[in-house]
Design brief:
Layout (H helix, E strand, L loop, with lengths): L4 E9 L4 H17 L3 E6 L8 E8 L2 H13 L1 H13 L2 E9 L5
Antiparallel strand pairs: 1-3, 1-4, 2-3
Helix pairs in contact: 1-3
């Protein structure tokens, strides 16, 4: 039995481009789901730091996540979503962490 893996992304975003980052996130929620993951959402600034956002999504295993990454490199919608972020410069940088989720 493989162990699920949850990917935690911490983004440093341009606070003036939060609407663009929201659009980017909405695109990726659907894409992660289509490519086999379970997306838990994007979390935008509310109170506190205005340039920090987060995302969480889970795959059934690290191998399934790696398959997703390979598929995303050539998937036209994924390529377009990435291009959108680059062109709008809504993301300054990001960090990725892998977590072991605990579900009931």
């Amino acid at each position: 039995m493989s162990n699920p893996v949850t990917v935690h992304l911490r983004y440093e975003i341009d606070a003036d481009k939060t609407p663009e980052f929201r659009e980017y996130g909405q695109r990726w929620i659907r894409l992660v789901e289509r490519l086999g993951g379970t997306h838990h959402g994007y979390f935008l600034p509310s109170e506190g730091d205005s340039d920090e956002a987060f995302a969480l999504f889970t795959f059934s295993s690290l191998a399934a996540y790696e398959q997703y990454r390979l598929a995303a490199e050539t998937d036209p919608e994924c390529v377009e979503a990435y291009r959108f972020a680059v062109e709008t410069k809504c993301i300054r940088r990001y960090e990725r962490r892998f977590l072991a989720p605990v579900f009931e």
